[in-house]
Amino acid sequence: MRTVSLLPAATEMVCLAGAREALVGVTHECDHPPEVRSLPRLTSSGIDHHGMTSAEVDAAVRSLTDGSSLYSLDAALLRRLEPDLVITQGLCEVCAVSPGVVERAISGLPRRPEVLSLDPSSLEEVLSDTVRVGEALGRGREARRKTEEFRRRLRRVARAVAGRPRPRVACLEWLDPPYSAGHWVPEMVGLAGGEPLFAAPGEPSRRMGWEEVAGAAPEAIVLMPCGFDVRRTLQEAGLLARMPGWEEIPAVREGRVWAVDANAYFSRPGPRLVRGVELLAALLHPEAPVPVPRPDEAARLTREALTAR
Fold first, then answer.
1. Stretch 43-69: mean pLDDT
2. Among 78, 189, 297, 306, whose Cα sits 20 to 30 Å from the Cα of 278?
C-alpha cells in the first residue's frame, strides 16, 4: 500500500512493522528512523520556532485564534503521490496537521484513500495503535511481536522499581508558561516508580502558574518541552531560576531536576515511549537495574547550574 504518514509517531510505527518501503510521503518533522528523512515532505509549519524562546512560541501558537491551522499540507503533492493509505490524528492541532485540513485535501483527490486516525491517550493505546498500523499494512504479525517485546520491557521496569519509595514527580510539557504533561506521561511516571503531579493518566495537558508548581513541592522535576531535545531544553533552563519559589522546591534543593529528550521519548505517542519509561525509572531510581540514560537522552540540572544560566 502506498502510505502517507502525517504523524511522526505513525512513521515510526510503519517502520517498526517492517513496512518502510510502503511510505511515499511524511511530515517535515519525521526524523526517525533516519532513512525517512529523504522521503517527500507534505507538511510545513506556520511558525519557525528555531531561535524563538518558549514564551514567544507559546504566544505565536495562541495567536492562531481564527481557526487557522498551525500546519499546512501540500495538497498538490498529496495528489501526485496517489496514496492508498493516509495515517493521521485528531489528538492535538499543535502536534500535527488538523483533521479538517487533512479531510479537505483528501476530498479533492480523484480516488479517496483509506484513512487511519490515531488518537491515543494512554501507553496501552499507543501499543494497540502500533498493531493497528501493522495490520493495515499487512504486517500485523511483526507489529504484534514488537509490541510484546515492549510489554516485556515494561514488566522488567515494574520489577526493578517494585517496593522502592515513590517520589512525587512534576513533568513539565512546556516551561514558559508552564504546562503539565498529560495523556500518557502520568502513566509513564507511575510505571517508572513515581507519583505523578498535576495530571492523572489520560488527562490532557494544561497551563499552570509557577506558584502551583512550587506549591506542590515536587521531589523530582522532569523538563520535557513538547518537541524539544535535551540541548534545546537546556537553552531554556535559565528562566527557571527566576520563577517564584523555585529555589525552595525540594527537587531543586536536592538536585533532582532533569532535562530529557521529549521529542524522542515523551511528546510523540509512538513506540519509543517505552524507552521513556526506562529513562524515568533510571532518573527516579538510579540504584535500580534499568538501562542508564545517555547524555543525549537526559541531563541533570543542578541548582548551581540553573542559577548560573
1. 71
2. 306
Closest C-alpha among 144, 99, 145, 137 to residue 119:
99
CATH class entry, domain 3-119: alpha beta
Multiple choice CATH, 166-308, 3.40.50.720, 3.90.1150.10, 2.60.40.10, 3.40.50.1980: 3.40.50.1980
What was the pLDDT predicted at 197? 96
Q: How many other C-beta atoms lie within 10 A of the C-beta of residue 258?
A: 24
Mean pLDDT (the chain) is: 91
- Total residues found in the chain within this entry: 309
Q: Which residues pair with 41 in a beta bridge?
A: 26
- The Cβ of residue 120 has, within 10 Å, a number of other Cβ atoms equal to 21
Q: Report the C-alpha gap between 198 and 151 in whole angstroms.
A: 26
Selection from 174, 171, 285 nearest residue 236 by Cα:
174
Q: How many CA atoms lie within 13 A of 218 on its CB side?
A: 27
Instruction: Find the mean pLDDT for residues 91-96.
Output: 58
